[in-house]
Amino acid sequence: MHSTTQHKYFDINFSLTRKRMKNIRLRVVAPKGEVKVSAPHRVQLSVVLDFVAEKQNWIRQHQAQIKDLMQAEPTPEPDLEPLRAAMKQRVSELLPVWEQRLQVKASGFGVRKMKTRWGSCNVRSKKIWLSLALAAKEPDLLEYVLVHELVHLLETGHNARFYGFMDEYMPDWREKHKRLNPRSRVL
């Protein structure tokens, strides 16, 4: 069971939440720099207050950082729509060619920001997703990722059969993979 109370110690206002836990925790939360402390039920209030007093410089530093961030002019995001449109156009041209070669049919494709992947394939829905970051790469690398994802419609895993299909349909895929992922080891 949780209980939350409001406290002020020196000039620091904070909320104290009591709950089942082992240690006292403190965080400063954006956008207002609110101070939130969590503590075990068994810890006396005087110990919590000492903890807050000990961390007051750290608290003020983090509140100042949050204030600076909130007051900073927002950086305008570049207009990505022209890149997205050009990439969709290119994929629209490549997709039917590769579907015919591989004898597969994707239900559709999309382009979105992806943080950790160049593409993905939902084998159940047969939808292909491609990273918008590919718009900044050479056109043959976009084609490589598209083929890679389409091959997943033939073989879901990254196994010998999958790589056999890649070798058959795009013999130079390893070179393209290495250019796209220089730190990756290629099978």
From TrEMBL:
Segments passing through the bilayer: none
Q: Name one Pfam family in it.
A: YgjP-like
Q: Which residues form the YgjP-like metallopeptidase domain?
A: 22-74, 83-181
Task: Give start-end of the signal peptide.
Answer: none
Which Gene3D superfamilies has this protein been placed in?
Metalloproteases ('zincins'), catalytic domain (3.30.2010.10)
Name of this protein? M48 family peptidase
- The organism named in the record is Aliidiomarina iranensis
